[in-house]
Design brief:
about 300 residues, alpha+beta, 2 domains, 8-stranded mixed β-sheet
């Protein structure tokens, strides 16, 4: 394909993208409520790969020392009993300049580069439950409205509440999946948000969200109208847990049974608050009474295995 053809296709793509966006908006606006809301989704999350609260602890900078322990690169000639004149002044300026550059270099080497190379593990656990575990939807909705998602302690509590809630409904587990990957900080950040966007793209609408204590919810009148028109044909609920944390808490087992899935949840629940970098909990459907069909689950979550 020649260069002119490639450029022409790029121009067509730029023109078509806004039109496609408008068309999608019209479809969502005009489609029946039961169709639009068939895959409502909820999201709870917080943390940051850039915020100092969640960054790696930095050790105290090591300042260079040169002879005598005074931190100067040379011995300043103070002439007792009668000034050093211009020569002394110039030497003092030179020593101060060298010291400032050394301090900046030490802080930079011990801080930014160390954080950039810091290993972070990104773990994903997905649980597919039978639709008869409807109470879980109410539990997740209540947690979204109450959870503190802006502090390490709050995120740790969120992680424990979700894992504990899922284990309470272990009798309803039908499918499961888990994976974990240890990466440098920058790559871990990309993987985490890519996984989050991929899961959120499976929702027809994100009807409830709590991100860093910023709660967004579709008006109750709309939710009630939508819930009343949802056909009761679904069979499953899906909860996805994404956790980024410093260090390594062991490799998550391959999920082949309920026991494997329970082990994965226990490992994540045991991560200390100070090691948590970011968390996202996503579940679908979010609307009470809304459920996924078996076909939708197998299509959207092909990685999950039957337990």
């Amino acid at each position: 394909m020649d260069k002119n053809t490639v450029n022409m296709l790029k121009r067509i793509g730029r023109v078509c993208r806004p039109l496609l966006a408008v068309a999608l908006a019209l479809i969502l606006a005009l489609a029946p409520v039961s169709t639009v809301w068939a895959r409502s989704g909820g999201r709870i999350g917080g943390g940051s790969f850039r915020s100092p609260t969640f960054s790696a602890p930095r050790s105290a900078p090591v300042y260079p020392s040169y002879g005598g322990g005074f931190g100067f690169p040379l011995v300043v000639p103070f002439f007792w009993g009668g000034g050093g004149g211009l020569l002394t002044l110039l030497l003092l300026i030179g020593a101060g300049s060298f010291l400032v550059r050394s301090l900046r270099s030490a802080v930079s080497e011990d801080g930014d580069e160390g954080v950039a190379d810091l290993p972070v593990t990104v773990a994903q656990v997905k649980v597919g439950l039978l639709a008869s575990a409807r109470q879980l939807q109410k539990d997740m909705n209540a947690l979204a409205l109450e959870a503190d998602t802006q502090s390490p302690e709050g995120l740790s509590q969120l992680l424990q509440e979700v894992t504990l809630g899922l284990m309470r409904y272990s009798d309803y587990w039908a499918y499961g999946h888990a994976q974990a990957e240890k990466l440098p900080l920058s790559r871990a950040e990309s993987l985490f948000y890519q996984a989050s966007l991929q899961e959120r793209s499976k929702f027809s609408a994100e009807t409830l969200s709590n991100r860093n204590n910023q709660i967004q919810q579709v008006p109750q009148a709309v939710l009630k109208r939508a819930a009343a028109e949802i056909p009761d044909v679904g069979e499953y609920l899906v909860v996805t847990l994404l956790v980024a944390y410093r260090g390594n808490s062991g490799t998550l087992p391959v999920v082949k049974s309920a026991a494997d899935l329970r082990q994965c949840l226990l490992q994540l629940a045991s991560i200390p608050a100070e090691r948590i970098v970011a968390i996202e909990v996503l579940w679908t459907p979010q609307l009470e009474g809304d459920t996924l069909s078996a076909e939708a689950l197998l299509t959207e979550y092909p990685e999950m295995r039957l337990l």
